[in-house]
Design brief:
little secondary structure; 0% helix; elongated
């Protein structure tokens, strides 16, 4: 489906099958997408502020430059998603699966990533300041040049993680 630049603000799309849909630059602010299938969907530049994507499937989706400020992505499947340059400030990603996702240059300030699966996730140059990564699995994650200022890492697994050039002050 081609839903490019469509205004779906506050729409109820729970459990919807949007596999491979083109939602580039769509307005999904406050939308209900709980349990929706957005596998391999194109949401580049989409507006998803305050949207509910709890348990949504976003595996392999293009989320580059999308705005997820304050969105609920708890237990969402974001494996291998392209999330470069996205804004995830204050987003809830608790227990989400971001294994192998690309988040270079993403804004994750104050995001909640407790218990998240972040194995082999690429956070190069991302801003994770004030982010709660308690209990998260960052095995082999790439955090080169990432800002982890005052991030919470209690119980996090950082086995074989790359932290070269990262800001680790206030941990």
């Amino acid at each position: 489906a081609n839903l490019q630049k469509v205004d779906l603000q506050w729409a109820n799309l729970q459990e919807a099958d949007l596999t491979g849909a083109n939602l580039q630059k769509a307005n999904l602010e406050g939308a209900q997408l709980r349990g929706a299938n957005l596998q391999k969907a194109n949401l580049e530049g989409a507006q998803l502020q305050g949207a509910t994507l709890e348990c949504a499937i976003l595996e392999g989706a293009n989320l580059q430059e999308a705005d997820f400020t304050g969105a609920n992505l708890q237990k969402a499947d974001l494996q291998e998603a392209q999330i470069q340059g996205a804004n995830l400030q204050g987003a809830n990603l608790q227990e989400a699966n971001l294994q192998g996702a690309k988040l270079q240059g993403a804004q994750l300030q104050e995001a909640q990533l407790q218990g998240a699966i972040l194995q082999e996730t690429d956070f190069q140059g991302a801003d994770l300041s004030g982010t709660d990564l308690s209990g998260a699995d960052l095995t082999r994650a790439d955090l080169k040049g990432a800002n982890l200022l005052e991030a919470k890492l209690q119980g996090a697994i950082l086995q074989e993680a790359h932290l070269e050039g990262s800001n680790l002050r206030g941990l």
